[in-house]
Amino acid sequence: MHILIVEDNALVASGIQAGLELHGFTSDTAGSVAQAQAHMTSRQFDACVLDLGLPDGDGVSLLRQWRGKGLALPVLILTARSTIEDKVAGFQTGSDDYLTKPFDLQELVLRLRALLRRAGGRTSDLLALGDCQVNMATGEVTCNGVAIDISRREWALLQALLQAHGRVLSAAQLHDSLYGLDQDVGSNTVNVHVHHLRKKLGADVIDTVRGLGFRLGARYCGGAA
């Protein structure tokens, strides 16, 4: 899952980014309203962690613009503003969650996972894929009770396909789920990760839709375990 972190304190932003990466997320950071708008225009994100006090504007106003344009991605406000009035304003503007600073990284991760679970229409973190079971919270995959070694990039790709519920995702969309803006990678990397997942989980775990991209294989479209 690809997270946009909008935070003007570079130290806080880098700490959140490093922590999210340890928990299997891909992320990019923006230190201002302008940077956040530019990132949101150029990439697709699965959720946003949004600070309110930004150098060129207010996070609430930014969120209001996004919601006014129909942008529906989950947004978690992360701010030092702790009054009930601030929280009411955040939720009324369209925030999906609100966490005050100082905060615990583990709580932030749990809240993000809950937002993504709800956005994906799931009530459980355990998903069945034929003979395999996927834990969306931990990234653990087992097939017939045997643990499968999945790399971080392979997991990000599989997670994106699972979250898509059978919709076709282009190579560019999958690339955005796997890599941040500052990572220079080859154009064939998505195909390489698809190949590896097919070898580990079965040739039909991912379908190729010629000219469009990839989607989860039909027989692997399971539900909560």
UniProtKB/TrEMBL annotation:
Give the InterPro entries listed for this entry. Answer: CheY-like_superfamily, OmpR/PhoB-type_DNA-bd, Sig_transdc_resp-reg_receiver, WalR-like, WH-like_DNA-bd_sf
PROSITE patterns annotated for this entry?
OMPR_PHOB (PS51755), RESPONSE_REGULATORY (PS50110)
Q: Which residues carry this modification: 4-aspartylphosphate?
A: 51
Portion annotated as DNA-binding: 124-218
* All residue ranges annotated as the OmpR/PhoB-type domain in the record: 124-218
Please provide, alphabetically and separated by semicolons, the GO molecular function terms listed in this UniProt record: phosphorelay response regulator activity; transcription cis-regulatory region binding
BP terms from Gene Ontology:
regulation of DNA-templated transcription
What CDD domains does this protein map onto? REC_OmpR_PmrA-like, trans_reg_C
Keyword line: Cytoplasm, DNA-binding, Phosphoprotein, Transcription, Transcription regulation, Two-component regulatory system
- In terms of superkingdom, the source organism counts as Bacteria
**Where does the record place the Response regulatory domain?**
2-116
The name on file for this protein is DNA-binding response regulator, OmpR family, contains REC and winged-helix (WHTH) domain
